[in-house]
């Protein structure tokens, strides 16, 4: 994984450096370089590799996805949203650059992700398919809808079904999109199965976040633990407890692995992603 | 103009109504319907008409541009930016729906504009050209950069050159994009001239804004007059006075008209836009 993540990090830096100097650009680069694990872009490229295809021509697609993910974190952290001071152990974008620049930096990442895809030398039809997949996953029928649901349901008693819906939109859509982007590039006929794998992995990932917010420490997590409780957010652990939540995580990852084996690919590369996430402590 | 604007308004409403029900969608629709003059989308369609082409297939492109314009207003009005309570005589989006939903509504409009273009039945190459033009104009080498410059230069003594630069990016880029989108659809070889017309009209338009902020009344303008002064913003009128500013407006519109006559088109339709803007009082 490390080599690919290094390539993604290097490319993100180069992409940003190609823009004219500005404070917004600095803020975008700051948040992009604030220690993200690059799970989503890694998935895109790893799926391509699982089809024995060369991933190097598609690094910019993976970077565009990471830009969208980073924009969502910047805006989520704003005083008008979750009002967080720390993200991955560092001051959040608005703490470092001021609120106005942080709003614009988020806008900038959401805006430029599409330009990065357009500037690749891929065929126009493929570009359109990739942009459509990404911006539907991130839009108001996807991640943004999830963010809205999340806000609307603070301080409310939730059912597991409702919580699943919030997680599906807020986290699952974009994480599943990573699998789908890889599929659109390497094997369009498998996109449906890859999408389903992505939803299972995405939900497991989010339940893990709920668990880590309870059992981890702030140093490992890079942000205060117990923030869900202090934000009066209902989570998997408040609804069914840590142990049952972990069982749900295990079940989802196992279901995802079963789907992986239904595809004619180099399974080990996708299993590597799942195991990496399964074992994560932050 | 009225018929076309009605068609744009109707189509914007239909586009939004096609999305699933959510508070973000309501907020997006609220801001889209808060009485904008639709100058930018009207320009796109009027340029197409000036080449004797049918504009009906391209209404969604015009709508996408208006969505981007509206997102920029929603985010500009936020407490973390200009902190405005009124826009076009109505409560701003965050006053009406709360800050979190307003942030997301802006994000939603920026995000969905590209999906609207993608969903049209135009050729992929044309879609790519239109998306590229729009998102470069709105991005960190365009409008967002202008918004950042605007913030950075509050309370600072400015030269006319610096002010022109701010106006060029903050207003000119997107207004010129309207002319360019029409050109890309109807006559790609004329895009360079149309772009130049757009920059001249855009700068004239912004200087008019500076003038109206001094000489108009808040009822006509739909927002408090004198807001530039109270925000400690240097403008054309503070730098060279109302009369010299108006002369600059007249000069720019005349130069734009000269460029219009250099093109082999139905000139009257573009002159109609310019005269409409020249005479505007709000």
From TrEMBL, chains A, B:
It catalyses: isopentenyl diphosphate + (2E)-geranyl diphosphate = (2E,6E)-farnesyl diphosphate + diphosphate. GO terms for molecular function: (2E,6E)-farnesyl diphosphate synthase activity; metal ion binding. Pfam families: polyprenyl_synt. Keywords: Isoprene biosynthesis, Magnesium, Metal-binding, Transferase. SUPFAM superfamilies: Terpenoid synthases. PROSITE patterns: POLYPRENYL_SYNTHASE_1 (PS00723), POLYPRENYL_SYNTHASE_2 (PS00444). The keyword Nucleotide-binding does not apply. InterPro entries: Isoprenoid_synthase_dom_sf (IPR008949), Polyprenyl_synt (IPR000092), Polyprenyl_synt_CS (IPR033749), Prenyl_diphosphate_synthase (IPR053378). One of its GO terms (biological process) is terpenoid biosynthetic process. It is an enzyme of class 2 (transferase). Its cofactor is Mg(2+). Its EC number is 2.5.1.10. One of its GO terms (cellular component) is cytoplasm. The keyword Transcription regulation does not apply. Belongs to the FPP/GGPP synthase family. This is Farnesyl diphosphate synthase.
């Amino acid at each position: 994984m490390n080599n690919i993540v290094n390539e993604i990090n290097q490319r993100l830096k180069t992409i940003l450096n190609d823009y004219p100097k500005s404070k917004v650009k600095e803020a975008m680069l700051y948040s992009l370089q604030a220690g993200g694990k690059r799970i989503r872009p890694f998935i895109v490229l790893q799926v391509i590799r699982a089809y024995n295809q060369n991933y190097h021509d598609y690094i910019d697609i993976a970077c565009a996805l990471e830009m969208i993910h980073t924009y969502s974190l910047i805006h989520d952290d704003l005083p008008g949203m979750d009002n967080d001071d720390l993200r991955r152990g560092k001051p959040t974008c608005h703490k470092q650059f001021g609120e106005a620049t942080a709003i614009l930096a988020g806008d900038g990442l959401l805006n430029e992700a599409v330009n990065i895809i357009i500037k690749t030398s891929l065929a126009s039809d493929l570009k359109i398919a990739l942009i459509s997949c990404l911006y539907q996953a991130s839009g108001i029928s996807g991640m943004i809808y999830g963010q809205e649901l999340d806000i609307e349901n603070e301080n409310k008693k939730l059912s597991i079904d409702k919580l699943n819906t919030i997680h599906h939109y807020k986290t699952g859509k974009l994480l599943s999109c990573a699998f789908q982007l890889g599929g659109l590039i390497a094997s369009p006929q498998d996109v449906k199965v890859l999408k389903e794998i992505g939803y299972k992995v995405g939900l497991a990932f989010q339940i893990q976040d709920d668990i880590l917010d309870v059992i981890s420490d702030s140093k490992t997590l890079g942000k205060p633990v117990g923030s869900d409780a202090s934000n009066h957010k209902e989570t998997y652990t408040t609804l069914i407890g840590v142990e049952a939540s972990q069982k749900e995580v295990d079940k989802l990852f196992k279901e995802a692995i079963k789907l992986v084996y239904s595809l004619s690919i180099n399974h080990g590369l996708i299993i590597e992603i799942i195991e990496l996430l399964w074992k994560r402590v932050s």
